[in-house]
Amino acid sequence: MLSQSAKDGFDLLLTQSLKNSLVPSGTEAQILTLTESADFPEKQMVVLTVSSYLFRLMVMFYFSPNDATRSHFARLNNVDEAEMSEQTFMDAIAESGNLCCGILNRDLGNFFPHIGMSTPNVIDKNCAAYLQKLNSQHIQHFAIDMDGSPRFHVSLCVSAYADIDFSVSAEELGSDTGELELF
């Protein structure tokens, strides 16, 4: 039900969103598409859903609550690492996931009407072992490598409720995070 062009489009839109939300300003990053599922070393994940009448996609951001991850999110949010409480740290991770999916949601709005987004949920990474139970038409895993940060992993899982075919070119994508919309 998902064309190869649509799968590539979802992947491209997500990787662009990841670059705009998880990579600190002035930092070089490389996002690799992993050819097969791996048992990622991170301990937890933030899960967000973007849905329309035609599809549901889930984005899972894997992380370990350790010093290296804390340092990355402190740098990303321009705060002193020592000033980050446990709650501030978890909020920073959830907000980065929220920002990423917000960008993805906005960009998908160019192709699909009536798109909604969930709030971030932090769950144990072992829940990812059940992704196949969702009967998705597309599951893709990514690794994000950045200077001075640990490697992060992200999974994309797309379920389609109708035939979906759209194409996206990298040249069409904006590089900003957008503006706040008030309703």
Note down, in words, how this protein is organized.
With 183 residues, the chain is α+β, with helices and mostly antiparallel strands. It has helices at 4-22, 67-76, 86-108; strands spanning 29-34, 44-51, 55-63, 116-117, 121-124, 138-146, 152-160. The chain has one domain (4-23, 31-162): Chemotaxis protein chec. Strands 1, 2, 3, 4, 5, 6 and 7 form a 7-stranded antiparallel β-sheet that branches. The chain starts with a helix and ends in a 23-residue tail after the last strand. The model has no long low-confidence stretch (mean pLDDT 88).
Question: What is the compact description of this entry?
Answer:
With 183 residues, this protein is an alpha+beta fold. It is 28% helix and 26% strand. The chain has helices spanning 4-22, 67-76, 86-108, and strands at residues 29-34, 44-51, 55-63, 116-117, 121-124, 138-146, 152-160.
Question: Which short descriptors sum up this protein?
Answer:
Chemotaxis protein CheX, chemotaxis, Chemotaxis protein chec, alpha+beta, 26% strand, CheC-like_sf, 7-stranded antiparallel sheet, 183 residues
**Terminal Cα separation, in Å?**
33 Å
Task: Calculate Rg over CA atoms.
Answer: 16 Å
Q: What form results from the Cα inertia axes? A: globular
Number of helices: 3
CATH topology, by name, is Chemotaxis protein chec
Secondary structure category: alpha+beta
Mean pLDDT: 88
CATH class: Alpha Beta
Low-confidence stretches: none
How many extended strands?
7
In the CATH hierarchy, what is the superfamily?
Answer: CheC-like
CATH architecture field:
3-Layer(aba) Sandwich
Largest sheet: 7 strands, antiparallel
The percent of residues in helical segments reads 25-40%
Counted up, domains total: 1
**Share of β-strand residues:** 25-35%
Keywords: Chemotaxis
Protein name: Chemotaxis protein CheX
